[in-house]
Amino acid sequence: MNKKAINQSLNRRDFLSIAGTTAAALSVSSRFAFAGPLSADRKVRIGIVGGRFGLGFYFHEHPNCTVEAVSDLRPDRRDALMKTYKCTKRYESLDKLLQDPKIEAVFLATPAPDHANHVLASLKAGKHVLCAVPAALNLEDCAKLKDAVKKSGLTYMMAETSAFMQSTISVRKMYKAGEFGTLFSAAAEYNHPGLEVLYFENGKPTWRHGLPPMLYPTHCTSFLISVTGERLTHVSGMGWGDNSPVLKGNPYKNPFWNETAFFKTNKNTPFRVEVNWRGALRNVERGEWRGEKMSFFMPQAEPGESIIVRSDAKEGLDHGGFQVAKNTTETFKQPKWWETDMLPAPMRHDSGHGGSHTFITHEFIDAIVNNRQPLVNIHEALAYTAPGIVAHQSALKDGEYLKIPSFD
C-alpha cells in the first residue's frame, strides 16, 4: 500500500493512538466537542459576506451545505466570491442579503469594527452566524452579543483559526489525556511585522489604521483557552510605540505598535501573550504549554517543527558543574488531522492558517445540523476576546493590574 493510500485509510482512532491519547480522554465537557456524524439529508443554505478573508473557506465542498448567495460592497470582490463558491446569486450589501428568506446562516468575513453590529443584525434577521475575529472591540458590545445570542436561540461561532490549527488539535488531545500533568505556565505570540502596509488603501485609511494589537488577541488567547477551558481573570499590559507619524490620527487613539500582556487565570496559571505589528520579528502564530510531566513548544517560525520536552528521573550536570534533571527533548511528528475522518471526505485537504479553515467550516455547519454548541461558541469567543480589550486598557494605564469581566 502506498503512502497516500495508508494516510487515507487512517481513521480518527488511528491518529488518537499516534498522539498517545485514549478513548476515555475524549469524554470531556461539550466545550471541547468536535463535529459528529454527517446527516446526509440536511443542507444548510449559507450567505458569505466579505470578498477577502471570505474567499478562503470551503462551504461549497461540505456535503451538508449550499452557498445560496454572496455579498461585498465592491463588485470585484463579489465576482471573486461567486467564482470561488460557484454561486450565481449576489447582493450589494449585508442588509439586502439578510432579507433573503432562503438563507439560514451567514459567514461574516467583514472588518473587525463591524463585527458586533453585523452579528446583531444577522441574529435579528433570524440567521445563524459564523463571524471572523475578534468578536467585538469593546466590553459593551461583548455584553450585547452575549444577550443577543442567548435570546435568539441561534448558533453563533467565531472563526478563530488558532483553535483549529493542527498543532492545537494535537495539544488539546494530549491535555485531555493528562500527558502534561499540571500546566504551570503558558505563552503565546502573534507577530505580524509590516502590518502598516494595510493601514491605507488608495490613500485612505482602512479600519486597520492604528488598531491596538491587544484588540486582536484571539490568535493567542485561544491557544490556552481552547485547550484547557480556563478563563483569564486578571491582567497587566504593557505597550511599545515610537511616536511614529504613521500612528498619528488613528481612530483608536492608539500609541502602540506592540503590546504584551501578563494574564492570570482562574486556575492561577500565568499566561504571557504578545501581539506585535512592528520590529525584527519572524511572522508567526504560536503557543507554548509547560507542564510538570511534559511541555510542548510550537515552532518559532512557519514552517517549522514543534518540540516536546518530557521530565526524566535522570540527573546530570550543567555547564557550570551543578546537578540538574536531564529532561528529554524530541521533535514532534505532527499528524495531519485533515486527512482523517474528522472532516467529510471532500474536505480532507490542507487549508489556510495551519489547516484550520476546513475545520472551521465543518464545525459551524455540523453544529447547526446536529443542533449543538460549536467549539468556539459565544462564551468561548468572548473569553478569547475580552481579555485583550482589558489588557489594552491596562497598557494605556502604564500596566495597572485589572480584573477581566466574565461573560460565561
From TrEMBL:
Statement: the UniProt record of this protein carries the keyword Ubl conjugation: no
Protein name: Gfo/Idh/MocA family oxidoreductase
Entry keyword Zinc-finger: no
Transmembrane segments: none
Molecular function per GO: nucleotide binding; oxidoreductase activity
Domain named Gfo/Idh/MocA-like oxidoreductase N-terminal: residues: 44-158
Gene3D superfamilies attached to this UniProt entry: Dihydrodipicolinate Reductase, domain 2, NAD(P)-binding Rossmann-like Domain
UniProt KW keywords: Oxidoreductase
InterPro entries: Gfo/Idh/MocA-like_OxRdtase_N, Gfo/Idh/MocA_oxidrdct_glycsds, NAD(P)-bd_dom_sf, TAT_signal
Parts forming coiled coils: none
Stored PANTHER family: BCDNA.GH03377
